[in-house]
UniProtKB/TrEMBL annotation:
The record's free-text note on cofactor binding: Binds 1 zinc ion per subunit.
Protein name: tRNA-specific adenosine deaminase
Reactions listed under catalytic activity: adenosine(34) in tRNA + H2O + H(+) = inosine(34) in tRNA + NH4(+)
Keyword DNA-binding: no
InterPro entries named among the record's database cross-references: APOBEC/CMP_deaminase_Zn-bd (IPR016192), CMP_dCMP_dom (IPR002125), Cytidine_deaminase-like (IPR016193), MafB19-deam (IPR058535), tRNA_aden_deaminase (IPR028883)
Sequence positions that bind Zn(2+): H54, C84, C87
UniProt-listed NCBIfam families: PRK10860.1
Cofactor: Zn(2+)
Family annotation (PANTHER family): CYTOSINE DEAMINASE FAMILY MEMBER, TRNA-SPECIFIC ADENOSINE DEAMINASE
Taxonomic lineage: Bacteria, Bacillati, Bacillota, Bacilli, Bacillales
Family: Belongs to the cytidine and deoxycytidylate deaminase family. ADAT2 subfamily.
Organism, as annotated: Neobacillus rhizophilus
Pfam families reported for this sequence: MafB19-deam
Quaternary structure and partners: Homodimer.
Amino acid sequence: MINQDEKFMLEAIAEARKAEKLDEVPIGAVLVHDGRIIARAHNLRESEQNATAHAELLAIDQACRETGSWRLEDTTLYVTLEPCPMCSGAIILSRVKRVVYGASDPKGGCAGTLMNLLQDSRFNHQCEVVKGVLAEECGSMLSSFFQKIRDRKKQEKKLKLQALEIDLQ
């Protein structure tokens, strides 16, 4: 039987799959209050050509509109990848109580891996952080996505070289 954190992480994974279908980095997020999802989102950075269109920010924005408040106290954010500095800042500023993430991000994770903005006592708000929930599923989705991109680039390079060879003949 799956626990509450796994249940909602599966919802975040479903959001990440939506991003993947759009050729976006497959990251999904859901915001939960009192056991109910109040917002859900996935990365749209490429689709919108907007550097801030991360799943977490989109979910926070939607939740603020849904609740009519910028204060998201007593909520839990479930996200498939450890939040970056920008998203961590928004999480702190919106007063999210708990953050549950799947895969760690060694290059940009600000919930304990690279640094821990979410629990820094110098801020006026800190979050409870739970890491590694369904980490394997979240991480393999990202790894597979980036492997496909590398394979596609390799194939494109090969086709360009073949075209060059034809032109030179």
